[in-house]
Amino acid sequence: MAKEVIVTAKKVKNRKKISRIIRISLLILLIFLIVLYIILEIIYNEGRFTVILDSNRTLESGLAVFDSLNNSHGKRKLEATPIRFMDNISFKWIPENVDKEADGPHNGDNYIAYSFYVENQGNDVLNYHYEIIVDDIIKNVDNAIRIRIYRNGEDTTYAKKSSLGNEPEKDTVPFKDIKNADGTIILEKVTDFKPDDLDRYTVLIWLEGDDPDCTDALIGGEIKMHMVITEEHTEKGRSERQ
Questions:
Q1: pTM value?
Q2: Dihedral angle computed from the Cα positions of residues 186, 189, 195 and 199, in that order, rounded to the nearest 10 degrees
Q3: Strand runs labelled E in the chain
Q4: What's the average pLDDT block by block, 10 residues per block, for the chain (242 residues)?
Q5: How many Cα atoms are found within 13 Å in the side-chain-facing hemisphere of 93?
Q6: Closest residue by Cα to residue 143 from 163, 158, 128
Q7: Which of 111, 122, 133, 206 can pair with 183 through a Cys bridge, CB separation 3.0 to 4.6 Å?
């Protein structure tokens, strides 16, 4: 009888030990999942579209970006307001005055719109270029994405080439080959940017429903991108300063 009690107590002790190990393992797994979720939230939901000056030297040279004329103090980074869900639409559904309706973020139904300024607040004549870089793509959603960039009211629409015939989509400039450009899909240059010159930009992003590549296969897709502005001094600017 005493032997049976000892065996039972040992089993209970082992069972408690195993239960404790399981609880600790589940707790560690839960903590890991929470940390992973936070990381994914930061990666995919924070700053879905940003505008970045390429270095601190840019601020020192006088090139500045800001998203309000009421506060023209240059910033290192501007962030658009992300939208969690974007259904496909036609460009015809977007307001005609989207470029001029507001500064900063002014998203609408199923599109991102962000307006900002680039100003030469220094003493040198500059050139600068801007590029849009794709950080991540899920489910090839870039097949039907449209990016329209307004610069001082003049607009250009960019899109990936059609999968049918590898031709540019109608009324668009094709994205650069992402495999050969380290994620850069748009690259443009502005020259002879004089002191006090001011450029106004609006970046408009939507999923074009009239694109033949806009199919159900894109449902659940995501894209993350940012815009980088890089300046360079010109020989003209240096000679004038001397």
A1: 0.75
A2: -40
A3: 49-53, 63-66, 77-79, 104-105, 111-120, 126-138, 145-151, 154-159, 173-174, 184-193, 198-207, 222-233
A4: 54 72 80 57 53 69 88 86 83 93 92 94 91 86 90 95 84 82 88 95 92 78 86 56 42
A5: 14
A6: 163
A7: 133
